[in-house]
Amino acid sequence: MKTRTRVVIKSADRLAPTLEKLASVSDELKLVGRNMEILHISTRCYKNSLLNKLSRLLEAYVVNFMEDGDEFTVSDNVVKHVFRRHRDWVNMIGLKSVEDVRTFMMDVLRRPDEVYRDIFHDNIRYFLRRVGGDYWLCVITVGSEARTAYLINRKKYNRYRVARWL
Amino acid sequence: MAITSLLDIDLRLLIEGIERACRIVLPRKVTEAYLDPKAEILHIRFSEPRRMECGEPLPLKTLATIFRDEDTNEITAIEILKPEDLLNELNPYL
User: Fold this and answer.
1) Strand (E) positions, chain A?
2) Contact call for B36 and A135, based on CB within 8 A
3) In B, which residues are within 8 Å of A155 by CB distance?
4) Chain B contacts of A152, Cβ < 8 Å?
5) CA-to-CA dists, residue A159 to A12, A111, A156, B11, B69, angstroms
6) Cβ separation A156–B54 shorter than 8 A
7) Same domain, A50 and A85
8) Are B63 and A140 within 8 A, CB to CB?
9) Average pLDDT of B27-53?
10) Does B19 reach chain A within 8 Å, measured CB to CB?
11) Domain residue spans in chain B?
């Protein structure tokens, strides 16, 4: 028996591009206004599986965004660590100083392209910004504090997606 | 016990434990070890990348990332978030 389930997404304005992206990569999902529709669900088992999948995707995309007004911190030690030991992306982007690195990391945290939660640790999140070609800058946070930032490529992105990211 | 100093860590034992737990071979030449006890980051560098290096997760519950040189695929560094948790996780392998 085919049924349809409608999931109402809050804050759709802010998340509209992400939801559109989700809908565009799956025939099972359709964005109708502010609602995400799941199509062609034939069995309870399949429905539950799809709902779980959707809830995980939405959790990654929706819950992981900080609420307006919340702020991340990038400590002096962390930004110096990144500046010294992950110099490749710093040079790649053309940043010149520790302060430039802090500003860029904060910008990724405020306006990430993608955000994922760690599969094992609720308070660890991965904020991604595409930085050219098949490379992403990955800023890792624990709670509201950034801890490190480094590059990942397409292959590693896929590996993280399977092994580490919710 | 919280790790507050590099002296609290036996790097050789840690590297060997990671190798056994993850079935990988890590370099033995360590050029730098950095610990930030407040941010709970342990960074062990084996070599500098020629151009750039990319991180990949190790199959552990603790977030441990190895870095490989994009040109040579050699392991250049390992970075561990919450090294204390890693030591506990690796306990059976140490």
Assistant:
1) 3-8, 29-32, 35-41, 114-117, 124-130, 135-142, 145-153
2) no
3) 56
4) 54-56
5) 29, 23, 5, 27, 17
6) yes
7) no
8) yes
9) 96
10) no
11) 6-93
Per-residue model confidence as pLDDT tens digits over A30-54: 776 666 666 654 555 555 566 666 6
pLDDT at position B2: 78
Q: Over 90: is that where the pLDDT of B80 sits?
A: yes
How far is it, in rounded angstroms, from Cα A77 to Cα A105? 14
To the nearest whole Å, the CA of B13 is away from the closest chain A CA by: 23
Contact B39 A160 (CB under 8 A): no
Task: Please identify, among A20, A40, A63, the residue that sits at the C-terminal boundary of a domain.
Answer: A63
Task: Say if residue A15 is in the same domain as residue A91.
Answer: no
Dump pLDDT digits (tens) for A58-94. 555 544 444 444 579 999 999 999 999 999 999 999 9
Q: ipTM, 2 decimals? A: 0.93
In a domain, A71, yes or no: no
Select the residue from B63, B70, B86, B89 to test the A interface by mutation, using most A Cβ atoms within 10 A.
B63
Instruction: Quote the crossing angle between the two packed helices B83-90 and B11-22, to the nearest 10°.
Output: 60
Residue B53 with chain A: CB contacts under 8 Å: 88, 150-151
Angle between helices A76-85 and A98-110 (to 10 degrees): 110
Residue B1's pLDDT band (cuts 50, 70, 90):
low
What is the distance in angstroms between the Cα of A150 and the nearest Cα belonging to chain B? 7
Q: Are residues A81 and A128 in the same domain?
A: yes
Q: What is the pTM of this model?
A: 0.75
Whether A41 and A118 map to the same domain: the answer is: no
pLDDT of residue A63: 44
